[in-house]
Amino acid sequence: MVTEGSTLSPIGSRKHERSHPSMPIQIYARITGVLLLLSVLSGFFGELYVPSKLVVSNDAAATASNFLANDSLFRLGFANYLVEAVCDVALIFLFVLLLRPVNMHLAWLTAFFGLVSTATFATAKLFYFTGSFIVGNADQLMAFSPDQVNTIALLSLNIYGYGGGLFMVFYGVASIIRGYLIFQSSYLPKLLGALLALGGVCFVIKNFTLVLAPASSSPYLLLPMLVAMLALALWLIIRGVHASKWHEKATAYE
Questions:
Q1: Cα–Cα–Cα angle for 197, 166, 224, rounded to 5 degrees
Q2: Which residues, including other chains, have CB under 8 Å from residue 57's CB and lie 6 or more apart?
Q3: Could you give the residue ranges of the DSSP H alpha helices within 9-145?
């Protein structure tokens, strides 16, 4: 029985529930910001800082020596990558939640691109761990000389380096779409959306230059994404989203 004060049908009630998550959207936004910042910091340490201390380009013997002398640093770096990967999987869902009021289908499309990106990079990261495993278990490779063992280990590390870059296009496309959705959202600054989309475009360009013209693949193409992610993370932590506009969009889209 519907009372006189009732304004929502059962269908309307379900729509209301879908538009208003059990946890306030502002809390989701700040969780997203914290995880995004943690992902950036962990990724910097595990993917850039630690390898820069261990891997010596074109010097297999020096690289092997570094890995043997700094095993704890290597393992700490890999642990940071695992933290980054866990954050990235959670962020895939959280970005869908934050951006679905703009366009549900595009928000889920970014999730698929994001999952492929995370999975392919995890596969590439396995070769990074394999390099250390080879160096640390040279006694099991007695058929090879020490120089050959070191060369195989360095080759594994180089495969990781290329593997991480060759599939950057998936993360780039996901970022372009997310940037577009943020730009169109009205509850997040357009500048953040533009920065994220620019970072995504640079990722795509770097991916294809690495495939088609490796000598032209500049590391500076990674900077716009770093700036965009830090800016978005800090904004979400400090300001969050404009909650009333998010709910307005969510209700209208439903």
A1: 30
A2: none
A3: 10-19, 25-43, 50-54, 60-69, 71-99, 104-136
> How does pLDDT run across 92-125, given as a tens digit for each residue?
999 999 999 999 999 999 999 999 999 999 999 8
Mention every residue, 6+ apart, whose C-beta is less than 8 A from residue 254: 15, 18, 19
Copy the structure tokens of residue 34: 């914290």
Phi, psi angle pair for 114, to nearest 5°? -65, -40
Dist CA 42 CA 188 (whole Å): 25
| Residues in Cβ contact with 117 at an 8 Å cutoff, skipping those fewer than 6 apart | 167, 168, 170, 171, 174
Q: Structure tokens of 90?
A: 């959670």
State pLDDT tens for residues 112-167.
999 999 999 999 988 888 888 888 776 677 777 888 888 888 888 888 888 888 88
Nearest residue to 54 (alpha-carbon basis) of 75, 84, 36, 39:
75
Residues 166-191: b if buried by 16+ CB within 10 A, e if exposed: ebbbbbbbbbbbbbbbbbebbbbbee
Q: Distance (Å, rounded) from C-alpha 229 to C-alpha 53?
A: 24
Quote the tokens at residue 15.
């729509």
Entry pTM: 0.84
User: Distance between the two ends of the chain, CA-based, in angstroms?
Assistant: 26
Distance CA 174, CA 200 (A): 7
In the chain, domain spans: 31-253
Q: From the CA atom positions of the chain, what is the Rg in Å?
A: 22
